[in-house]
Amino acid sequence: MIAAATGFATGFSLILAIGAQNAFVLRQGLLRKHVFALTLFCALSDAVLIAAGVLGFGALVTALPALPIVMGLSGAGFLIVYGALRFKAALKGHYKMELAGQSRSLRATLAIAAAFTWLNPHVYLDTLGLIGAISTSYDSWAERLWFGAGAITSSFVFFFSLGYGARLLAPIMQKPSSWRALDVIIGVTMWLIAFGLIRGVMTGAIH
C-alpha cells in the first residue's frame, strides 16, 4: 500500500501541471459534452503508458533516439495550429455554440485528445521514463505493480475530477466574454508549450 500511495502521489504531481491536454478536458467539461468518453480516453492512455513504463519499455526512447525529436516537432506544430484557432475564436467572439453547450462530434473530440496525448514527448518522458525509473527502486514485482496501479489511479481521479468538476464554473461561463477569456488563456498556454517543445528540440533538452 505504501508503494501504491507513492505511485498515486507521483502520478498526480506529474499530471497536475496545466498543460494542453488538461486545458482541452477543462473546456469540454465546461461544455458538458463527451466528458465521460474524453476523460476515460485520457485516463486509459495514461494507464497504457504508465504500465509500459513500469514493465520496462522505457528503453524504447533509448533505442529510438530520433523519436522524441519527431514527436516534439509534430506536437509543437499541432499546438501552434490549435492555439491559433483559439485566438481566432476569441477574436471573432461567436460563442453561440458554447453558450448552448454544443461541441464537436465525439470522433473529432477524441481525435484532438489523441493528438494532445500521443504527440507530447513529455508524456513519454514522465511515464516511460520517470515513472518507469522510479518503479525500479522497488525490489519485488508486486511492489512495482502496486506503484504502477497507484499512478494509474491518480490519472483516473484527476481527469474525471477535472472533466466533471469543470461544471462548477458553468455559472461564470454564461457570457461570451468569459469564453473569450478562456480561449485566450488556452491559446497562450498552447503556444507556450509549443515554443517550449521547439526550444527543447533545438537545445537537445528532449532526449
Q: What do these coordinates show?
A:
The model has no long low-confidence stretch (mean pLDDT 83). The protein is 78% helix and 0% strand. The radius of gyration is 18 Å and the shape is globular. The longest helix is centred in the C-terminal third of the chain and has 28 residues, at 176-203. The chain has helices at 2-15, 20-31, 35-54, 59-63, 67-92, 96-99, 106-118, 121-135, 141-165, 176-203. Helix 3 runs parallel beside helix 7 (106-118) and helix 3 crosses helix 8. The chain is built from 10 helices and no strands. It is an all-alpha fold.
The helix content is over 70%
Radius of gyration: 18 Å
Unreliable spans are: none
Mean pLDDT: 83
Helical/strand content category: mainly alpha
- Helix/strand order: HHHHHHHHHH
| Euclidean distance between termini CA atoms | 33 Å
Specify the number of helices.
10
Strand content: under 5%
Total number of β-strand segments? 0
Main β sheet profile: none
| Oligomeric status | single chain
- Which outline best applies? globular
In short:
This protein has 207 residues and is mainly α. Helices cover 78% and strands 0% of the residues. The protein contains 10 helices and no strands.
